[in-house]
Amino acid sequence: MHFDKKYLFLSTSLFFKLLINVFVIFYIAKMVSVSNFGSFSLAFIVSSITTLCLDYGFNLRGLVLTSKTKEEVNVELSSMIFAKIIFSAIAILVFGLFFSLRQYDVTTNKVIGILAVSAIPTSFGNFYLNNFKIVNRFDKEAIGYIIQGSVLLFLLWLNHFYGKNDILYYAIILLISKIAYMFFGFFAFRKGFFKSVTFDFKKAMGVIKTATPYGVHLILGASIIYIDTFILSFLSTLENVGLYQAGMRIIMASMLIAVIISDAFIPEISKMFENRSIVSKKLSTLFEFILLFSGLTLITIFFYKHTIILLLFSEDYLVLESSISLILLIILLRYVGIVPGIILTSYGKQIIRARAVVISIVFSIILNFILIPIYGMKGAFIASLVAHIVLNIIYVYFAHKTIIFTKNVSIFLLIAIFLINSILQLLFFSDSKVFLTVTIFLNALLIGVYLAFTSKKGLKI
């Protein structure tokens, strides 16, 4: 395998995405009560869904414009910007309706309002910087996330020593960091490759129609994770919401490498999609690597669940240990769905992804209303697991009909690596910080050995 410079920038972006979307949330979870964390998590989800609605698949659509001319790209991106402005106006109206029908406490509603507004600068910042990937300028996004992360850390530091331990303060800090991110993205976009921006309502409607399969899939895809939380907030307490969201944050933290993989491969596969033999070989190698990485991740979380929960949260969250098997299965299914998702997107089959997600959400909603009253938080995890099983069955079926991506997977090599790791854990290691650190280095070593082994075979991503 050979990794070019874009992976350095994508890795940098990933690190700061982890900082902004995961580790900061873990920090807040440690600082506030489980109930307050439930309120903040609910607001954070509203912000995330609003961001996806404003993005509307435009970022994903932009990644497949690599074969178009500069002029064609400029026209389409201009239309996307106008469409995003339209969506932002609609979002503000929806926020007003939401708060007129509010049912949460005053503090929760204030935090929801602040983080919902933060979705607008987040979405525009994402759009401005994401589109530099079309011209292989992955560094722009990395710089944007560095700026956002630095502002966020500085303000959290100030608040920690001179401010107040209040979820309202944390929400305002996140809003300020996202505004800084948007301004950098705007000026980079304005001075960079894409300079011509015109507003044409007809073209904006056209680009909305084109991006609909991408947008529907992304919005509904996120709903598979988020719908459980909303139903849980209606049928249970904010404390259970906090506990459930802590489990989902573990899932999301373990999955952020998927962002690197998708962002790097969708443009590349879109360029060479006609050469099916090369694409098949490349995706088979990628799928094998994903199985390796996910397997080592699952083994680590399983054997060190107690330590990980205490490191990320507190003793109040140890109840999550009883649901760890469900959490691990959801992580595995999300990893398995990465390559099929890349295939369906690169080959213009977003409509299949959207339909698959709709079917999965229907299962999720029905099961949540049945299982949450019976099993509480664990019922939400079970509903999410079933929804992911349904989604993956559809993804894998249609993706495999398009491109065979499992042909060259070395199953026995992967099993051998997993067995070595598991035996070491059972015989010599225990659930502690020291052995968790050792295991992380061991995983890195095993991945290095794997990469060396596959490179000798002439395989590369």
Task: Please describe the structure with a list of short key phrases separated by commas or semicolons.
2 domains; 461 residues; single chain; mainly alpha; 0% strand
Walk me through what this model shows.
- The protein has 461 residues and is mainly alpha-helical.
- The protein has two domains: 1-199, no CATH class; 237-461, no CATH class.
- Helices cover 82% and strands 0% of the residues.
- It is globular.
- The N and C termini lie close together (5 Å).
Number of strands: 0
- Proportion of residues in β-strands: under 5%
Low-confidence stretches: none
Radius of gyration: 22 Å
Largest sheet properties: none
Could you give a quick summary of the protein structure above?
The chain contains 18 helices and no strands. It is mainly alpha-helical and 461 residues long.
How are the secondary structure elements laid out?
Layout: H1 6-31, H2 34-55, H3 58-63, H4 70-100, H5 106-130, H6 138-162, H7 167-191, H8 201-235, H9 238-255, H10 257-271, H11 276-303, H12 305-312, H13 324-336, H14 338-346, H15 350-375, H16 377-402, H17 411-427, H18 433-456
